[in-house]
Amino acid sequence: QVQLVESGGGSVQAGGSLRLSCAASGSPVSSYYMGWFRQAAGKEREGVAAITSDGSRRYADSVKGRFTISKDNAKNTLYLQMNSLKPEDTAMYYCAATSSKLWPAPLSGNSYSYWGQGTQVTVSS
Q1: Which residues contact 8 (CB under 8 A, 6 or more apart)?
Q2: Phi, psi for 90 (deg, rounded to 5)
Q3: Could you tell me the pLDDT band of residue 105, with boundaries at 50, 70 and 90?
Q4: Is residue 2 scored above 90 in pLDDT?
Q5: What would the mean pLDDT of 58-62 be, rounded to a whole number?
Q6: Helix, coil or strand: residue 115
Q7: Bridging pattern class, strands 10-13 and 119-124
Q8: What was the pLDDT predicted at 104?
Q9: What span, in angstroms and rounded, lies between the C-alpha atoms of 72 and 74?
Q10: How far is it, in rounded angstroms, from Cα 33 to Cα 112?
Q11: Between β-strands 119-124 and 91-98, what pairing exists: parallel, antiparallel or unpaired?
């Protein structure tokens, strides 16, 4: 099993940037498809970005061109670089992992078995 711990959240003004990290332990991230999800207050969880074990990426339309998912297998860490942040990006962000190898990497949280505790991102206008 893999354990996931997110960090890097915070408060930023609109137009700013943040980089989220998700440190994995117990198993190598190279063995999993990984994803970032978010949930705003009163809203359903939304898939933001996903990456396959060989590095193929997928993004929600709402973040395309602004967010970049990446991973460092040597550091066993997943990242989410978030640029041009908007107030509507405010949410709790979670990383997740799945052993599934269906392609493309899923953006549905139901496909993921392992979750971190989340990190809060707040974007003010």
Answers
A1: 18, 19, 20, 21, 119
A2: -60, 125
A3: confident
A4: yes
A5: 97
A6: strand
A7: parallel
A8: 85
A9: 5
A10: 9
A11: antiparallel
Residue of 12, 34, 22, 1 lying closest to 119 (CA atoms): 22
Quote the tokens at residue 2.
Answer: 């893999």
One-letter amino acid of 71: K
Measured distance CA(92)–CA(88) in Å, rounded: 12
DSSP secondary structure letter of residue 65: T
Tokens of 69: 């998912």
Cβ(20)–Cβ(31) under 8 Å?
no
Per DSSP, helices labelled H in the chain are none
Confirm if 51 and 30 have CB atoms less than 8 A apart.
no
E-assigned strand segments in 26-110: 33-39, 46-51, 57-59, 67-72, 77-82, 91-98
The answer to whether residue 45 scores a pLDDT higher than 90 is yes
Tokens at residue 95, please? Answer: 């990383």
The single-letter DSSP state of residue 106 is P
